[in-house]
């Protein structure tokens, strides 16, 4: 996110049309490159303590688009889908104890060896379905967008007036924890937390607006950061040699180097 922010605000005039040289933000290229080097060397890991985290979807895709290597983007996305995707969304990260029946709300942290009790019963967050939908729409993968939309629709909470709400998360009920330990992914889950979860609900609405073509990707990404991972043509530098006068032209001709003088290329001006 820091890398994306640095790149996005580079040469930003804080006062817009009424600004001047003193109101423009200049970001040192080295600072963004340092962030990129660290980011791409760690992915698909989230950090030294977490193997993978669904929150990386917001880094490799909308809204940050912080990674410009397609291979790294695909590897990170595939790892998230393989290890964290479930029926009710994605787990935040492996052995995440938040809101699980085994969580002790009075403890601030757990020792690494204690985290095993959360394995296979981590809560699943529908919000990450929304991120996967947006990613598919930005990459033009309509089939994937439709698949994740159908999955999300099945787990949304519907009010009496037909409004669809995205809950914060789905947790395994305490009485079903032993069965979930034995056969991961087989037990029903119940919604917990806020409903609607405004963060997820806003992403859901944005996704619907894109799917129905009320919004275009460029309107959500005016800086075109989504294009940073696309292959760019090689930069070709062309050099033209001109002789300052006829004398130099003749000397070059003696070595089979045929050039024109500055005067001969008129009206093209050479400074």
Automatic annotation (TrEMBL):
Keywords: Calmodulin-binding, Carbohydrate metabolism, Cell membrane, Glycogen metabolism, Lipoprotein, Membrane, Prenylation. It is a lipid-anchor. GO terms for biological process: glycogen metabolic process. GO terms for cellular component: phosphorylase kinase complex; plasma membrane. It is found in: Cell membrane. Transmembrane segments: none annotated. The keyword Ion transport does not apply. Residues 1-238 form the GH15-like domain. Pathway: Glycan biosynthesis; glycogen metabolism. Its main location: membrane. Pfam families: Glyco_hydro_15. SUPFAM superfamilies: Six-hairpin glycosidases. GO terms for molecular function: calmodulin binding. Phosphorylase b kinase catalyzes the phosphorylation of serine in certain substrates, including troponin I. Belongs to the phosphorylase b kinase regulatory chain family. This is Phosphorylase b kinase regulatory subunit. It comes from Ceutorhynchus assimilis (cabbage seed weevil).
């Amino acid at each position: 996110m820091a890398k994306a922010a640095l790149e996005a605000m580079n040469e930003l005039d804080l006062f817009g049309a009424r600004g001047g040289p003193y109101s423009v933000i200049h970001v040192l290229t080295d600072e963004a490159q340092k962030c990129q080097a660290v980011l791409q060397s760690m992915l698909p890991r989230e950090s030294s303590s977490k193997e993978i985290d669904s929150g990386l979807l917001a880094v490799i895709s909308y809204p940050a688009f912080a990674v410009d290597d397609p291979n790294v983007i695909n590897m990170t996305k595939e790892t998230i889908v393989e290890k964290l995707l479930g029926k009710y969304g994605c787990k935040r990260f492996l052995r995440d104890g938040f809101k699980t029946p085994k969580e002790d709300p009075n403890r601030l942290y757990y020792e690494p060896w204690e985290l095993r009790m959360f394995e296979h019963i981590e809560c699943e967050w529908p919000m990450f379905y929304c991120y996967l939908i947006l990613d598919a729409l930005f990459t033009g993968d309509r089939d994937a967008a439709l698949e994740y939309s159908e999955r999300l629709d099945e787990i949304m909470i519907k009010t009496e007036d037909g409004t669809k709400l995205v809950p914060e998360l789905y947790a395994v009920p305490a009485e079903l924890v032993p069965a979930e330990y034995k056969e991961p992914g087989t037990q029903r889950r119940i919604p917990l937390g806020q409903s609607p979860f405004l963060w997820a609900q806003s992403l859901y609405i944005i996704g619907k607006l894109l799917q129905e073509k009320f919004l275009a990707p460029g309107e959500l990404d005016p800086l075109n950061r989504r294009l940073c991972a696309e292959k760019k043509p090689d930069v070709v530098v062309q050099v033209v040699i001109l002789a300052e006068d006829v004398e130099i032209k003749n000397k070059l001709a003696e070595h089979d180097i045929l050039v024109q003088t500055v005067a001969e290329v008129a009206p093209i001006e050479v400074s």
